[in-house]
User: Which sequence fits this backbone?
């Protein structure tokens, strides 16, 4: 019985794809299972991973948000610029707090618009993302900031641990911000699994009318998921700066699509109502494995976009196929039940 | 009802901010507007310059040069540009300028092909058009380059070869495989290596695409170093490539064994010029090219087209003896920035 459950789980299939891909990369390059490569992989997952955790909630609630890279961009630039101008010397924690608060306001705006206007959230967030971009460029006069304020530069230089690969002599270090990634997954996992709010998010995503009748406050849930995404976006913005050691507003270009793809790759239903936080994590892992190992796989530059697209479609159709199978099973069960009743 | 009210008032707010936004974008280049309204002192021309991105320190340096030129010559020169590197927005800026009373237009097009129709329109109206960073462009009176693309590629390769002690594996990086000048530079650099530095070897990946994004350059460089631990050099065409690769080199603990050379500016590459992973970066001074474009426009307006021939001295450093090939003009303004002179070039 347990084995059968495992086979039904989406995560099981993603883990298999990840394992196969890892073995292929290892076989071709001999560089996948090296300490420095694994640290690099985790490290490159920090920023997209955090965003995916927030977006996972939005998608499960049956909504979509394409404005989060712009939220992150705005918060990142605003706080970094501000701290540079005032030559801030205090604890770095404040940078995350302020960015989180700005993100909260921006997310709240998305949420309130979504709850009041009842328009498709794709349209709303397409609108707000342009506004966020406009604010960053027009009001804040965006530019590249290569010298970070001292506390942020210090965090950029601080690592949790470093590894050196004895064979190649290559090293890699794990930034402190990996802790944020872990914290956000724990928080999202806890909310989704153990709280009434989490159940509400699943319920609203599955069927808003039924959820409302069951007593869930649909508007509150909508506002909550967007606000949460905003806060995560803001924090992620500063995280990116501390990982990169500089601030360039096109860091998040194209993130809206890759992160949505990663969440869907992780088994979340794009129409809402289902998905798991572990699946999302695996989706991001798979996504990063694909995009960061094309060179190790020996794919020529001209073909890298093509291959990324193919791998995403292959991954997503696998989970889509599974949900088709599940639906068919439900349908046939109903039919069988009907027959039994007739008999 | 309530919701309709909200929707309506929101629409009103959006519209009004749109109007304000438009007002804002023109006040953004306030110096430009005030300058544009007053017709220049007698004999002066009105020369508008359009850059790629008003938020970029590079373009601000360009503006410095244009202002200096205006102060020196008494012509009315000003700079405008989109708030982000966005070709459509840049074309709008050009459209607006054409409808004003200007004598010449100096443009650094983001996408030359897309700009061609609007610049042709300007020429049809009798406006002198000078372009930059668009070699071979046709819808202009002249295109001025800081240098010949081939020479620049070769100069980059010379610097990289020096850093690598003339031997070892290397790879090239560009913003996009479709960026014409980036690929021209790299073609020239690779050809030069094959001829002059036989002990250097281009790895099979040949050219990486890093989308003008330092983070992407960093991640790709890391991956290349993993695959080729004996690689010795990165040659980057975008100004984000050398610092991105240098960050990877420093982090992987390969400082002093691998070098990244290429286009760069001190404001971004500074830390890596210090660490030595960027032994030097190459560029040209946009202030000087800005000045040279205005000077060229003035000459055309003065009817001195016949003087524009190879060997012409524009009176600006790096443009003392330009090369003229049809409507393509190039100077010798390659600038090599290293640890010692980086303080002088703060853009």
Assistant:
């Amino acid at each position: 019985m347990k084995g059968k459950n495992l086979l039904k789980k989406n995560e099981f299939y993603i883990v298999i794809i990840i394992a196969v891909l890892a073995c292929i990369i290892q076989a071709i390059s001999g560089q996948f299972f090296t300490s420095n490569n694994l640290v690099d992989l985790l490290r490159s997952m920090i920023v997209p991973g955090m965003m995916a955790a927030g977006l996972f909630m939005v998608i499960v609630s049956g909504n979509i948000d394409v404005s989060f890279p712009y939220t992150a961009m705005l918060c990142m630039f605003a706080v970094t610029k501000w701290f540079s101008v005032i030559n801030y010397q205090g604890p770095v924690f404040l940078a995350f707090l302020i960015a989180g608060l700005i993100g909260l306001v921006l997310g709240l705006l998305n949420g309130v618009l979504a709850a009041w206007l009842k328009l498709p959230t794709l349209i709303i967030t397409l609108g707000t993302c342009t506004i966020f971009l406009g604010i960053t460029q027009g009001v804040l006069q965006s530019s590249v900031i290569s010298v970070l304020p001292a506390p942020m530069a210090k965090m950029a230089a601080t690592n949790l641990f470093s590894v050196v690969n004895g064979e190649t002599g290559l090293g890699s270090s794990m930034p402190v911000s990996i802790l944020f990634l872990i914290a956000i997954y724990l928080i999202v996992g806890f909310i989704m699994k153990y709280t009434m709010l989490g159940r509400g998010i699943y319920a609203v995503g599955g069927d808003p009318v039924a959820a409302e009748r069951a007593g869930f406050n649909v508007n509150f849930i909508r506002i909550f998921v967007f606000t949460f995404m905003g806060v995560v976006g803001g924090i992620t913005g500063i995280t990116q700066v501390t990982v990169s050691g500089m601030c360039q507003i096109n860091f998040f270009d194209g993130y809206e699509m890759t992160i949505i793809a990663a969440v869907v790759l992780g088994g979340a239903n794009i129409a809402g109502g289902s998905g798991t936080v572990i699946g999302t994590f695996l989706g991001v892992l798979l996504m990063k494995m694909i995009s960061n190992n094309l060179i190790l796989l020996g794919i020529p530059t001209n073909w890298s976009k093509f291959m990324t697209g193919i791998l995403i479609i292959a991954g997503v159709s696998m989970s889509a196929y599974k949900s088709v199978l599940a639906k068919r099973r439900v349908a046939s069960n109903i039919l069988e039940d009907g027959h039994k009743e007739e008999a | 009802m309530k919701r309709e009210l909200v929707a309506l008032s929101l629409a009103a707010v959006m519209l009004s901010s749109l109007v304000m936004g438009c007002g804002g974008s023109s006040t953004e280049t306030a110096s430009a507007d005030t300058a544009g309204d007053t017709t220049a002192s007698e004999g002066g021309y009105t020369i508008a310059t359009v850059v790629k991105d008003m938020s970029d320190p590079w373009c601000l340096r360009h503006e410095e040069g244009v202002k200096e030129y205006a102060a020196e010559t008494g012509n009315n020169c000003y700079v405008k540009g989109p708030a982000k590197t966005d070709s459509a927005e840049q074309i709008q800026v050009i459209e607006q300028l054409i409808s004003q009373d200007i004598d010449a237009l100096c443009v650094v097009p983001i996408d030359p092909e897309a700009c061609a129709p609007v610049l042709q329109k300007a020429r049809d109206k009798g406006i002198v058009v000078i372009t930059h960073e668009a070699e071979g462009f046709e819808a202009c009176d002249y295109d001025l380059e800081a240098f010949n693309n081939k020479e620049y590629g070769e100069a980059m390769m010379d610097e990289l070869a020096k850093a690598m002690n003339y031997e070892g594996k290397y790879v090239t990086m560009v913003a996009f495989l479709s960026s014409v000048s980036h690929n021209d530079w790299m073609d020239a650099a690779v050809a030069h290596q094959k001829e002059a530095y036989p002990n250097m070897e281009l790895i099979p990946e040949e050219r990486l695409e890093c989308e003008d994004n330092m983070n992407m350059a960093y991640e790709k460089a890391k991956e290349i170093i993993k695959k080729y631990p004996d690689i010795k050099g990165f040659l980057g065409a975008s100004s984000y490539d050398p610092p991105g690769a240098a960050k990877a080199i420093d982090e992987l603990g390969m400082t002093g064994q691998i070098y990244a050379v290429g286009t760069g500016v001190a404001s971004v590459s500074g830390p890596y010029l210090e660490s030595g992973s960027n032994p030097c970066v190459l560029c040209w001074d946009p202030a000087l090219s800005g000045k040279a474009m205005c000077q060229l426009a003035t000459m055309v307006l003065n009817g001195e087209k016949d003087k524009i021939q190879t060997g012409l001295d524009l009176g600006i450093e790096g443009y003392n003896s330009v090369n003229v090939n049809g409507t393509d003009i190039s100077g010798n303004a390659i600038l090599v920035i290293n640890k010692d002179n980086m303080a002088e070039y703060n853009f």
Remarks:
- Chain B has eleven helices and 13 strands.
